[in-house]
Specification:
By secondary structure, the chain is an all-alpha fold. 80% of the residues lie in helices and 0% in strands.
């Protein structure tokens, strides 16, 4: 049975892609924030914690909540803290398209991890799709790779983000077998907030927003990108193969580049547009090959 044969899995695919569209706004919010990048990473999860715990309390019975799979959830929170800690700095050092693409190189590490940990088989068509998708994503941001110095550091942090993000994806895939999306999001987000608080206090030049609009930007980051986007992604991961889910999220850098062009004036050239088309073709092949 293919990924799309079940209506339930079709819903999961829709949730995954909608989540990618929502989370693609995250770098825009980070750029617009008047706090430091590590502070915005903390506020992203801190402001999302209360609504996520309310969601979990409304959907999980107490006896089920008491049996939460704490180990993979804590690992997911630690990996997500590393993800945000590196990515939010990367966004400020390089272009939105670059940092978002590099963060989404995670499929390479997810596919390896899914094979090693879960023994998930990978078809030849899927490997071709992975190569096509990553090739298209590279076209999307290739013109920016010539920049050195600060931009190069941003690119390196983007790749580090992908490693942490892959760990997060695999951890939530494991946890999804024993709890709901609400449980995954509430616990992992709380762990990430606890870890990011001292990191932000030590490294952020500006920790608190400087205006009401600054708070609105962070609230948007928390609710749109995290509560909305990340929850939809977690739901998709719970019902789809980890490798396919990771490749589908490469839609995110395409949308992030479009958002950055429309809202921040970051140029998107013909080569980058071609890259976006190739990414979409790769996602379609991945769906066929999963």
């Amino acid at each position: 049975m293919s990924v799309a044969d079940s209506p339930h899995k079709s819903l999961a695919i829709a949730a995954l892609l909608l989540g990618a569209a929502a989370i693609a706004f995250a770098p825009i919010f980070v750029r617009l924030s008047d706090t430091g990048p590590t502070a915005s990473a903390f506020w992203r999860v801190a402001l999302a914690t209360l609504p996520l715990w309310l969601w979990m309390r409304l959907t999980l019975r107490k006896e089920i909540a008491a049996r939460l799979p704490w180990k993979p959830l804590v690992i997911a929170g630690l990996c997500f803290a590393g993800d945000l800690g590196a990515w939010h700095v990367s966004i400020m050092y390089t272009s939105v398209a670059n940092s978002t693409l590099e963060a989404n190189f995670a499929p390479i590490f997810v596919t390896m991890g899914a094979w090693l940990l879960f023994r998930q088989r990978v078809s030849r068509l899927f490997l071709i799709a992975l190569a096509v998708t990553l090739g298209g994503a590279t076209l999307l941001v290739g013109p920016n790779f010539a920049l050195g110095g600060r931009a190069l550091l941003g690119d390196a942090l983007g790749v580090l983000t992908a490693v942490f993000y892959a760990g997060y994806m695999l951890a939530i895939k494991s946890a999804s077998e024993r709890t709901s999306t609400a449980g995954i999001m509430a616990v992992s987000t709380s762990v990430a907030a606890i870890v990011l608080l001292p990191y932000a206090l030590v490294t952020a030049d500006v920790f608190l927003p400087q205006s009401a609009s600054g708070w609105l930007v962070l609230i948007g980051l928390a609710l749109v990108a995290h509560v909305g986007g990340q929850s939809l992604i977690a739901y998709g991961f719970a019902h789809l193969p980890a490798s396919f889910s990771a490749v589908s999220l490469l839609l995110q850098p395409v949308l992030a580049a479009i958002y950055a062009w429309a809202l921040l004036g970051e140029a998107v050239g013909p080569v980058q547009l071609l890259g976006g088309v190739v990414v979409l073709a790769g996602i379609y092949l991945a769906k066929r090959g999963s």
